[in-house]
Amino acid sequence: MAKTLRTSGDYTVKAGAGYDSGLGTNTIRLDARYVRLPGDLVVEGTQTVVDSQTLTIEDQFIEVNRNNSTAGTEDSGIFFNQGSSNNQIIFYDADQSEFVVGSTTHDATVSAITNITPGKIRILTGTESDQAATKGYVDSQVSGGGFSINFTGDDSTTVAVASGNTVDIAGGSNISTTAAEPDTVTVSLNNDLTNITSITSDASNGNLELVANGTGDIVINNVLTFSGTESTPAIDSSIPKLYHKTAAGGGTGVFFVNSDVSATEEGELISKKKATALAIALG
Predict the structure, then answer these.
(1) How many CB atoms lie within 10 A of CB 106?
(2) Contacts made by residues 83-91, CB under 8 angstroms, sequence distance 24+
(3) CA distances from 281 to 251, 272, 274, 277, 278 (A)
(4) How many Cβ atoms sit within 10 Å of the Cβ of residue 252?
(5) End-to-end distance of the chain based on CA atoms, in angstroms?
(6) Per-residue pLDDT reduced to its tens digit, 28-63
(7) What percent of the chain has pLDDT over 70?
């Protein structure tokens, strides 16, 4: 038969000697299949032990280190008991302002974590290849040349970056770039260049070379324009150098030097008008 004990004020049950001081020394045992507390439960002792096999909590958030009143000075987290092995822990390291995962020789009664061995975090599922790497691990692998990165071009050619730090990006019908230590970059063009308005050499006083493949020619399909007036270049080879200056006797302003023609003087291409006038004058 159900019974109800009702009181108009606070109701206290004490067990054992010392009850006059507000702290009993014996145990009060509630032996029932279910114990329900419709109101709030406040535990004021120093330890709460739950021996149930399943703990279900309705709250969306769990607060630890509840009575901390200082700003950013206390470590706090969750311990995982591993029996005779070191405890595993996820905690906030207040001194470093960072979260840490690892194992420790401490137990959950400690007030600060001073002994920690960083642990591993596995992402996705599977083997060690799914583990998240630390910055230190990545740095050591990069500096030791123990990593591999693959680049795949639009022709499905895959190139691996491994020891030696050589990068080869195969672009198929587009641009193929090869970079190797220390700082050499080679670009190979496997297709016609389009939408190019300027090509400039960044080498100080260096040449800009256009080289055809094999016996092919360099073909200019439109107008070739000399945008500036140049001084006479050095006559140092039998290969003609073509340039622009103020027009002289030839009437064109297009000059050349060639050691096979003269080792000391430049020549000017003659215009049709000048050539006709010379032919008439010479009869």
Answers:
(1) 19
(2) 86/117, 88/119, 89/113, 89/116
(3) 16, 14, 10, 6, 5
(4) 17
(5) 147
(6) 888 898 889 889 988 888 888 888 889 999 999 999
(7) 77
Residue 136 amino acid letter: G
Cβ–Cβ under 8 Å, residues 181 and 166 = yes
CB contact at 8 A, 208 and 199? yes
- pLDDT digits 0-9 by tens, 105-125: 999 989 899 999 999 887 776
Please report where in the chains the tokens 């910055």 appear, as a residue: 135
pLDDT (mean) for 218-239: 87
Write out the H or E segment, with its range, that includes residue 149. strand 149-152
Number of H helices and E strands in the chain, helices first, is 2, 14
Q: What is the pTM assigned to this prediction? A: 0.45
Q: Alpha-carbon distance 185 to 180, whole Å?
A: 7
Q: Cα separation of 230 and 235, whole Å? A: 14
Neighbours of 158 (CB within 10 A): 10
Q: Indicate the DSSP class of residue 95.
A: T
CA quadruple 15, 21, 22, 24: dihedral, nearest 10: -20
For residue 141, the 8-state DSSP code is H
Task: With beta carbons less than 8 A apart as the criterion, state whether 110 and 125 touch.
Answer: no
Helices (H), the chain: 135-143, 272-281
Q: How far apart are CA 22 and CA 14, in angstroms?
A: 8
Per-residue tokens: 67: 């009575």
pLDDT band per the 50, 70, 90 thresholds, residue 181: low
- Residue 105 is predicted with a pLDDT of 94
